[in-house]
TrEMBL record:
Keywords: Membrane, Transmembrane, Transmembrane helix. It catalyses: 2 GTP = 3',3'-c-di-GMP + 2 diphosphate. The chain crosses the membrane at residues 21-40, 294-316. It comes from the Bacteria. GO terms for biological process: cell adhesion involved in single-species biofilm formation; negative regulation of bacterial-type flagellum-dependent cell motility. It is an enzyme of class 2 (transferase). Residues 377-514 form the GGDEF domain. Pathway: Purine metabolism; 3',5'-cyclic di-GMP biosynthesis. SUPFAM superfamilies: Nucleotide cyclase, Sensory domain-like. This is diguanylate cyclase. NCBIfam families: GGDEF. Pfam families: dCache_1_like, GGDEF. It comes from Izhakiella australiensis.
Length: 514
């Protein structure tokens, strides 16, 4: 129905739909925000844990590195003290060799122990072999001790052993003559393979790193990279360019210059030695494990969102159907009411004249009779009959007969309009007027007016037995000035009929009161 778009129900419907939609959008945004916030904070927690783990790991391997170098340091100190007391002449060589051999055997990190004289010549080695013409005066550590009268241990960059070809870290100490002049060097070499092995024990991801560096940024060993990164200088990396200048240990988060992988780093500087250890966790791997942890949560959130939307859709559908039903019911009700009105009027009105029909007349008379009884008021009835109407029909035909009845009906209706009266078509060419609350005089007056008004219509009727030449009425009047309780109104009708009969008999076109 076109008017339903602007009806209150339709407005209510669109209002409800809008509220429901707003509710759904709000809930969806809330679920997304809560999920987003939860995921974001869980990622931050994951990164924090990663940083803590990296730092703890770097501290743990720094202690291990410290122990590794301290053991070699103490061994070298002991050897230095013995050489400085007993010298390294040919009579000492056997003793020193045995000593070096047994010391090496106790320390798994050691590749070898060596003693060189002030010219760099090999004096004693832990494995007893001395290559012909061997001279280590060209080594960086030898030159260092030659130049620096310092009794502390020196840790050099990674070199390849001249005795075995292995990659080694040289740890060395200067030997002095009693006068303090340079006497030679005692050297302990640590196998890179030792760190490879130790760092291999840690259960780490493929791209997680563990690195040992000199504090000038030189890589000594770094897993999982191959040996080509050894001795590479990292002094330009943020760790050495500023982080280590600010604190001896900490965490950082940056992209490696070695392989471009972003890592969470934990770093620690060793207390006794110029060394730095770094543990790095692959951030992408962390992201993956965070994501797999959160996957179930994300799936559940998505399901929750879908369920909310589905429920919302169902509720909206329900509301729509409900309102649709209501609208349809209202329409049906309106139609029924309209039909009832039509039926009612059809049931109570006369189709030809539009006056009250016989049924309404009966109902009205019954009702007014009771009212008059209880209020002790007068009630009058006028029975009206068109004179010689059969002849009128015979002369002019039924259609004009109908017109005539309609005009008489309209005239009677106009006359009664001012008084509390009901004008009805009693049947055929007979009319009736019920008049309540008025004396019989009023009924007579009304009857006289009706006689005059219909005659004044001047509807030609030359054959009428009234002799008026026009259509006239005969009226029977009766009035019951105070109907007694228990009386029936049938008496009123009988009496009015009798009066009408008399009016006809007395020559028509008149009113008779009984
Ligand atoms: N045109 C028309 N005629 C009607 C209608 N209802 C009744 N009549 C006619 O009214 C006439 C009534 O005739 P009668 O009852 O013999 O009485 P009358 O001819 O009026 O004679 P009196 O009553 O004695 O004056 C009949 O011929 C009916 O056919 C109607 O609705 N239309």
């Amino acid at each position: 129905m076109p008017h339903s778009h602007s009806s209150p129900s339709a407005m209510l419907k669109s209002g409800l739909r809008r509220s429901m939609l707003l509710f759904l959008i709000t809930i969806s945004i809330a679920v997304l925000l809560v999920s987003g916030w939860t995921m974001w904070s869980s990622w931050n927690r994951m990164v924090e844990h990663g940083q803590m783990d990296a730092r703890n790991l770097s501290q743990s391997i720094s202690r291990q590195a410290e122990d590794t170098f301290l053991q070699v340091d103490l061994t070298l100190q002991d050897l230095r003290d013995r050489v400085e007391i007993n010298g390294m002449g040919s009579e000492q060589k056997d003793y020193l060799q045995t000593l070096l051999q047994s010391r090496k055997a106790t320390l798994p990190q050691l590749h070898g122990l060596f003693i060189y004289d002030y010219k760099g010549s090999w004096i004693v080695t832990s494995d007893g072999k001395i290559p012909a013409q061997a001279n280590n005066a060209d080594r960086e550590y030898f030159k260092f001790h030659q130049r620096n009268n310092d009794n502390r241990v020196h840790i050099g960059k990674v070199i390849r052993s001249r005795s075995t070809g292995d990659l080694i870290i040289p740890v060395s100490m200067r030997l002095n003559n009693p006068d303090g002049s340079f006497h030679g060097v005692v050297l302990g070499t640590i196998r890179i393979d030792f760190f490879r092995q130790v760092y291999g024990y840690y259960n780490l991801g493929d791209r997680d790193t563990l690195s040992l560096l000199l504090s000038d940024g030189t890589i000594l060993y770094s897993r999982p990279f191959d040996d080509s990164v050894i001795n590479r200088n990292m002094s330009q990396a943020p760790l050495f360019s500023h982080l280590l200048k600010a604190a001896s240990s900490g965490t950082a988060d940056y992209r490696s210059t070695l392989d471009g992988v972003e890592r969470i780093l934990g770093y620690t500087t060793l207390k006794r030695y110029p060394l730095v250890v770094v543990a790095g966790f692959d951030k992408q791997e962390l992201l993956k494990s965070w994501f797999s942890d959160l996957l179930i949560y994300a799936v559940l959130s998505a399901i929750l969102l879908m369920v909310i939307c589905l429920l919302g859709y169902m509720v909206m559908r329900h509301i729509r159907l409900n309102l649709q039903n209501q609208i349809e019911l209202t329409q049906v009700r309106d139609q029924l009411t309209a039909m009832n009105h039509t039926l009612q009027s059809l049931a109570l009105l006369d189709g030809l004249t539009g006056l009250a029909n016989r049924r309404q007349f009966d109902l009205f008379l019954q009702q007014q009779w009771k009212r008059a009884q209880s209020l002790k008021q007068p009630i009058s009835l006028l029975m009206i009959d068109v004179d010689s109407f059969k002849l009128f029909n015979d002369n002019f035909g039924h259609q004009l007969g109908d017109d005539c009845l309609r005009r008489i009906a309209a005239t009677l209706s106009n006359l009664a309009a001012s008084s509390e009266a009901l004008v009805a078509r009693y049947g055929g060419e007979e009319f009736a007027i019920v008049l309540t609350g008025q004396e019989s005089r009023s009924a007579n007056t009304l009857a006289q007016k009706a006689l005059e008004a219909v005659q004044a219509l001047a509807i030609s009727h030359p054959t009428s037995l009234s002799g008026a030449g026009v259509v006239t009425l005969s009226i029977g009047i009766t009035t019951n000035s105070q109907p007694a309780a228990g009386d029936s109104y049938d008496g009123l009708i009988t009496s009015a009929d009798a009066a009408l009969y008399q009016a006809k008999n007395q020559g028509r076109n008149r009113a008779v009161v009984l």
